Amino acid sequence: MSGATGDLGKRICRELISRSAEVRAIVRTSTDPEKVKDLKKMGVTIFEIDMNDVVQIADACNGVSCVVSSLAGLGDVIIDLQSRVLDGAIRAGVPRFIPSDFCSNYNNDLIPGENRNFDLRRNFKKYLESTSIRASSIYNGCFADILKYNTPILNLKNNSIGYWGEKIDWKLDFTTMDDTAAFTAEVALDENAPRNSEIASFQVSPNMLVNMVKEISGKDFRIHKISSMEGFSASIKKQRVEYPAGENELYAKWQQGQYMYSMFSTQHVKLANESYKNLSWTTAQEYLKTFFK
Length: 293
Hints:
Structural class: alpha/beta
Low-confidence stretches: none
Order of helices and strands: HEHEHEHEHEEEEEHEEHEHHH
Radius of gyration: 20 Å
Largest sheet: 3 strands, parallel
Strand order of the largest sheet: 3-4-5
Number of strands: 12
Helix content: 25-40%
Distance between the termini: 37 Å
């Protein structure tokens, strides 16, 4: 496991261990000791190594059946570091690899150049597919946590729900981190897992959100069109030009806009939710109730 100290990575470790899997995590020697301690308490075997050294990565991967990457970052992480992890896995003879593709399926309708972080994953995918290792990508749409953070899609401060274009009934893909982790654990343990899997805990449109919020909270949220999709795209590009420092930030404001633009540009059409019968999926109502009082 690479990226095990992150929020998603830790959850994937937990789900693997609950399925009686032996879990190893490779971490930097400079990793926060408390994070390492938490993983060890869970039952994860830790390898504190120089992540620039492919040989050390390979040594930690000896005898492993699948390497899972939940790394998050910019090019130095998603392309450079993840490529070294992949090289180490291949050197150790690991048969399978799950890349950090936890996002919307950028292979569908999304145009290169419209989402910087998706472009990084596209670049890594080119290298991944030039190797002989068997890969399984998991596309979870957007993490459901975004619904808590007062974005234009659902703003709890001003009781509003926004959308772009004519997409008031466009269904958005949301998956909780726990559901994503559980599905990832199943894929990691499945020798016959497919190359690509699209999942979503729930799919809801802005219109559906209005009704759900009313039912759960009793509050009337204002639903409104923010702009056309063309106008949204133009404003994102303008923000990016005006804030070049954001190129070195994982979640620059314009990158957040790119994510939302992508959510309203593509959607999962064939969910793999039923691939593993022992999984249960969080509904939209269940999730909204966790933060609506």
